UniProtKB/TrEMBL annotation:
The keyword Transport applies. Belongs to the ABC transporter superfamily. This is ABC transporter ATP-binding protein. SUPFAM superfamilies: P-loop containing nucleoside triphosphate hydrolases. It comes from the Bacteria.
Length: 328
């Protein structure tokens, strides 16, 4: 794998508990690398730590331990350094209606980043170019429009244009198509792929939807309770998932064979992460006796698993999966 553009190294993010409660470990030991021009999908249920990890990679949260590096340099949290960093790494939010000021025109929304960063070039040309790249053509036709005058897909394109205008090297897209109609989702995903091809743009796409990951990502990282539990090339992970949690997530896709796997209960509280495999209390493999037959049931309940490395090789944090590989 080529040298990483953005890396997380043993990243931990904890939030203090209320009224003396234990601290919540939102991110609990994560290694993750994103190479230049690579699209990585970060997948998991709500509450698994995806957004906390993304915010930390953006410099919006400071890690409790571990570090973030960009282009080989540790992230500097001084205000001037963070401002320069956020020009190179841009956030695209899931709800364009919430992220666009209803009182600002499209032109003002896209130009805002240029003004914050003291852009000295031709502002009008830069805004027009960003809108055009985002698929809003001719761009001048959109300059004086307001968000309420646009469709959902057009609003998302404006948000993307607001990120592109600063010519970032990487975008972090948090559920970029979750609020859009199915007919528009494909257009926005195709746009992100086109931008990667034209600009060499890297992307971290945060989603709960493995189907979206299949359509856009080079690599997928599956997150559960603050830690990445399976990672690898998207074709490998989604055609032959090794972790029971990944198998359960895939089973509910419309095209998945067999019956959906219904996980019992909710994910545990991140302030009370269980011992052993953090998924064992909900694991269909352990509950069905397969882990017992493989001789790893006790390990599942008591023995923690190592943090997966951030690189591109296929990896899984699962005692049962490891026993299957050893038996082959």
């Amino acid at each position: 794998m080529t040298e990483s553009l953005l890396s997380a190294d043993r990243l931990q993010v904890t939030f203090p508990g209320r009224r003396g409660a234990p601290a919540a470990r939102a991110v609990d030991g994560v290694d993750l690398d994103i190479a230049p021009g690579e699209i990585v999908a970060l997948v998991g249920e709500s509450g698994c730590g995806k957004t906390s990890l993304a915010r930390t990679l953006l410099g919006l949260e400071r890690p409790t331990s571990g570090r973030v590096t960009f282009a080989g340099e540790p992230l500097d949290y001084a205000s001037r350094a963070l401002k320069a960093y956020r020009k190179r790494v841009q956030l695209v939010l899931q709800d364009p209606s919430g992220s666009l000021n209803p009182r600002h025109t499209v032109y003002e929304a896209v130009a805002e980043g240029l003004r914050i960063h003291g852009y000295a070039g031709d502002e009008r040309a830069a805004v027009a170019d960003a809108l055009s790249r985002a698929g809003l053509r001719p761009p001048e036709r959109f300059f004086l429009r307001y968000p309420h005058e646009l469709s959902g897909g057009q609003r998302q394109r404006v948000v993307i244009a607001g990120a592109l205008v600063l010519e970032p090297e990487l975008i972090v897209a948090d559920e970029p198509v979750a609020s859009l109609d199915a007919s528009v989702r494909g257009e926005i995903l195709a746009l992100i792929l086109k931008l990667r091809e034209e600009l060499g743009l890297s992307a971290l796409v945060v989603t709960h939807d493995l189907g979206l990951a299949w359509n856009i990502a080079d690599r997928v990282a599956v997150m559960y309770l603050g830690r990445i539990v399976e990672t690898g090339r998207v074709e490998d992970v989604l055609t032959s998932p090794q972790h029971p949690y990944t198998q359960a997530l895939l089973s509910v896709l419309p095209e998945a064979p067999g019956e959906p796997v219904v996980l019992t209960g909710e994910a545990p509280d991140p302030s009370r992460i269980p011992g052993g495999c953090r998924f064992h209390a909900r694991c269909q493999i352990l509950a069905g006796g397969e882990a017992e037959r493989a001789g790893v049931a006790d390990k599942c309940r008591t023995e923690d698993l190592p943090v997966l490395s951030g690189g591109g090789a296929s990896q899984v944090a699962c005692h049962w999966a490891a026993a299957r590989v050893a038996a082959e």
